[in-house]
Amino acid sequence: RKPTEVSWRYTEEGERVRVSLRSGRILPLPLHQRRDGIVPEQWIDGPKDTSVEEVQNKTYQPSLKTFEEEVMEAMGIVETRRAKKSYWY
Known about the structure:
The longest helix has 9 residues, at 67-75. The protein has a domain at 1-28. It is an alpha+beta fold. The radius of gyration is 31 Å and the shape is rod-shaped. Helices cover 16% and strands 13% of the residues. It has helices at 52-56, 67-75, and strands at residues 6-10, 16-20, 26-27. β1 (6-10) and β2 (16-20) form a beta hairpin. The protein has a three-stranded antiparallel sheet with strand order 1-2-3, with no helix packed on it.
């Protein structure tokens, strides 16, 4: 099979379409396909996919604690040691 030679023309309604030069038929555009072969318009979510609503939920709660302080609070560890004095010259 050889690739079809096409040209772009306008219909009476003013719509731009692809037309085969050999047969004169209007050729529809192929579906947009990603590199991995997935067509986004035909995608169906599977059981392990996260829904759009869940992705858009804001669950992060910012705080001024360090990572270590957050872990200690989550694990119920209470800091009882005293910090040593430090001097800056």
